[in-house]
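Regression test attached.
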Amino acid sequence: MDLHKISETCGWQDLTEGMQIYQGGTSAQFPTGEWTAVKPEFIEADCTQCLLCVPVCPDSAIPVKDKKRGDFDYKHCKGCGICVNACHAGAIKMEGVK
Amino acid sequence: MGKRDRLSGNEAVAIAMRQINPDVMPAFPITPSTEIPQYFSSFVANGQVDTEFIPVESEHSAMSAAIGAEAAGARTLTATSSCGMALMWEELYVAASNRLPIAMALVNRALSGPININCDHSDSMGARDAGWIQIYAENNQEAYDNFIQAYPIAENAKVRLPIMICQDGFITSHAVENIELLDDGDVRAFVGDYNPQHYLLNKQETMAVGPYAVSSYYMEAKKQHANAMAEVKQVALDVAKEFAKISGREYGLFEEYRLDDADFALVIIGSAAGTAKDAVDALREKGVKAGLLKIRLFRPFPAEEIAQALAHVKAVAIMDRAESLSSQGGPLGAEVMAALYRARSQALAVNYIYGLGGRDVRVDQIEDVFGQLEKDAAAGQIADAYRYLGLRA
Ligand code: SF4
Ligand code: SF4
C-alpha cells in the first residue's frame, strides 16, 4: 500500500475502505510530539541505563540502541511525564513533574 | 427439505445463529438482553457450534468485543434489545465507520423512560443514523429468514457494513408460531465461509483499523460510507433471490399487500402489519380499496421505490411505532413524506403514532385509520398530519 496516495487532496473514492491502513508503523510519520508544550529532559550523566523508563512510555519515544537508551524522540513524546516517575536515578527532569 | 416446527421468535433466531455457526458471539447475558444469547450459549455448551461465546460485563463491552473480533477477521454477531442497544450507542458508529459486517439480532423494545420493557421501535429508530443496515420482520418466520440473509448482505464486497435484524419485542420474540426451518447444510452453504480481504490477524499484512480521521478526512469517510449504503438495496434483492431458491420464500425491499389498485394505503413496519392485513381484507370485503406497504429494509431507505409503489394512491397513512418528539411525527412518517415530496406525489399523507410501549393495536383501529383516510381524501386535504392511534383523551 502506498500511504502517500492518501492525502488531504485526494477524493473520497481514493480513501481505503473504512480509512484502514494496510501498513505497519505508520504512526512514526505523524509528529504528534507537536501537541505538547512541555518536554522531559534527559540527564545522560545521571543515567544508569537500567531501561525502566523505556516500556512505560505510551508513545515509544525513548529510543534504545545497543542496549542503551538515547535522547528523547521529541517528534513523538507527548510530555505525559510518566518516564520521570519511572526513573529512580533522577536522570529525567520535567517542568511540573516530581 | 425444511422442517416444520413451533418456535418462539427468540428460539428461531438462535437456531439461525446455530446454523450459521459464527466465530465469535460477545453478548451481555441478562436483562435487558433477550433469550437469544441464552439459547445460543446452550448450543455452545453442547458443542453444537464452534463459536467463542464471550459473556461480557455490559452491552458497551459486547459491541466493543464484537468490533475487535470482526476486525481480527472473525465472523461475529451479538444480540440485544432496548436500553441494551442504547448502551452500545457509541460503538455502533465505530463498527459502521470501520466497515465491519457484524450482525445483530435486535428485539425491538421501548427505551425508558418512562420505564417500560414492551414492544416499540424506539431503540432501533433512535440508531437509524448510526450507519447500520436495518431489516425488519413481521413474524417469527421472517425474523429467522432475515437473519440467514444477514451476512450475505453485510459481507458483500460492495457493502461491508454491520446489519441489524429487527423483530418486535414479545410479539415476535416470545410468542410461539409455526415456522419452517431450513436444513443446516443449506444454511451453511448459503451463508458460506467468511474470507475478508483485510483483517488484523493476517500474518501476511500488517494493518491498522480505526485511525483518527481529522477534519480533512472525516467528510470523505462519511461520503464513502454513504456510498456503500447505497449499494445495499441491490445486494439485498440479489440475496433475497438466492434465498428464495433454498426456501421458496420471496422477499423484497418491502412487501406490497393488495396495493396495486389501492386508493388508500398504510405504510407500516413490523408485527402490526399482520393486524393491518386483516383490516385491509375486511375493508376489501366491503368494497373499500385498501392496501398496505410493509417496510422490510429501512436502512438504507428505499425512497424512490416506495414513492413509486404509492404513486397511484389517493391518501396514505404512515404508521410509526416510535415518537421522534419533533412535534411533527415519527421517523418513518418524515422519511416517507420526504420520499413522496421528492417524487412530486399528489397523495395526501398523514402520520400516525401507535403501539408505543407495547400498546395493543387492533384490527378495528386500523379500519378506523382507513375510514379517516377516506374522509380526508373526500375533503381533499389533511388538516392534522400528525395523529395518535389508540390514545385515551
Ligand atoms: S529509568 Fe532513568 S536511569 Fe533508567 S534508563 Fe531511564 S533514564 Fe536511565
Ligand atoms: S514524557 Fe511521556 S511521552 Fe514523553 S518520553 Fe516520557 S513517557 Fe514518553
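Expected vs. actual: identical. Residues A 47-53, 69, 86-87, 89, 91-92 surround iron/sulfur cluster (ligand 1) (CB under 6 Å).
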